[in-house]
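Tokens as discussed.
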């Protein structure tokens, strides 16, 4: 028997991908439109299934382009597919996902396959959920099927047409960041006493972040405190009175100009991956759309097939009033292209207070804006949000 998975293609690809993984069909039918074809949505689905190892050469794939506003066009083209396979294969079971497309496409698919009757299952998967409802054959109460499949971050991004540009470096970067866990926590724990020194580093190194190396040699504007001396000693700086020097490499420059904060946040997030609370997480993710658009995410993670990202802002990075503006732009440029869902962006800052109007504005855009005190409790905040008991 041929198991035919029928999906209506739309901007929201994840429900089609998840249900395809759940069923593992022999035949894939994509009912699409000119716009979805131009946007490469079918290719996104196929690329993700290929990443999962679920697109063998033997699988039969058909894609038909319909007029989404013409019921007659939708029905005639779907019926032609049905007639073709039943003549060739005979014994067929149809697994129909009517989540995507528009109402006309969904109604056409529902009517055709309901009339076939036998060996037909018609399902709908709400966006952002990990279960689907069986509409046909109808059960009382409606049959709800839970899906256990979980996408990795790479698979999720692939589903929306993004490729990770720097994935070959992730293993080495992750190991380095994890090895710095205690050091980054020490900086955050002592941030109030170190922020002058960190601001000094940022001022003189901000424009050197792309350099492979840089001979740092600068005079601090006052006598060093005990903890500032301790920090400089930890990172092997040479100190002569107030003159601070060291030959820095790129990783060190990035680390001292805010990278330490990103590493701290990633370690908190990744610890929840290790506890199986989150599904996957990466730091410094450089992504590129099939169209060529490039972006970079400080930290990205997935939980139950929903994408989240975290931006990290230290006092040295941006003025407070710029934070929301930058994040709103990023949401418009990235999150709108990466599925639906509320409050999927978080900004972690080293600010001890955030203006109430800016906080409310962030919430209006679905952005969760955190002070340094809240960042220090980030792990427990995420544990609570995603349904795990706090430590």
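Sequence:
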């Amino acid at each position: 028997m041929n198991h035919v998975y029928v999906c209506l293609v739309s901007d929201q690809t994840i429900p089609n991908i998840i249900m395809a993984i759940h069923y593992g069909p022999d035949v894939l039918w994509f009912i699409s439109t000119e716009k979805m074809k131009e946007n490469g949505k079918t290719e996104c689905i196929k690329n993700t299934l290929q990443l999962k190892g679920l697109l063998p050469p033997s699988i039969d794939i058909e894609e038909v382009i319909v007029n989404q506003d013409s019921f007659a066009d939708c029905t005639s083209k779907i019926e032609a597919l049905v007639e073709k396979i039943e003549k060739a294969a005979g014994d067929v079971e149809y697994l129909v996902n009517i989540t995507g497309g528009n109402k006309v496409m969904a109604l056409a698919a529902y009517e055709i396959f309901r009339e076939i009757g036998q060996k037909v299952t018609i399902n709908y998967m709400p966006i952002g959920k990990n279960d689907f409802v069986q509409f046909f054959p109808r059960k009382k109460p409606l049959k709800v099927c839970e899906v256990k499949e979980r996408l990795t971050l790479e698979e999720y991004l692939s589903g929306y047409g993004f490729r990770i540009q720097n994935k070959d470096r992730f293993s080495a970067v992750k190991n380095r960041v994890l090895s710095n866990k205690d050091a980054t926590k020490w900086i955050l724990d002592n941030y109030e006493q170190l922020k002058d020194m960190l601001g000094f580093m940022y001022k003189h190194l901000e424009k050197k972040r792309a350099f492979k190396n840089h001979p740092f040699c600068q005079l601090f504007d006052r006598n060093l405190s005990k903890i500032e001396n301790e920090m400089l000693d930890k990172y092997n700086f040479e100190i002569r009175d107030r003159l601070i020097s060291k030959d820095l490499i790129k990783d060190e420059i990035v680390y001292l100009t805010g990278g330490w904060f990103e590493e701290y946040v990633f370690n908190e997030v990744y610890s929840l991956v290790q506890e199986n609370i989150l599904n996957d997480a990466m730091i410094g993710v450089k992504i590129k759309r099939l169209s060529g658009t490039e972006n970079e995410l400080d930290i990205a993670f997935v939980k139950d097939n929903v994408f989240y990202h975290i931006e990290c802002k230290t006092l040295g990075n941006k003025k407070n009033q710029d934070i929301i503006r930058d994040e709103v732009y990023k949401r418009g440029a990235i999150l709108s292209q990466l599925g639906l869902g509320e409050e999927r962006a978080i900004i972690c800052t080293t600010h001890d207070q955030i203006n109430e109007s800016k906080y409310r504005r962030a919430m209006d855009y679905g952005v969760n804006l955190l002070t340094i005190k809240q960042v220090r409790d980030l792990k427990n905040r995420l544990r609570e949000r995603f349904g795990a008991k706090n430590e």
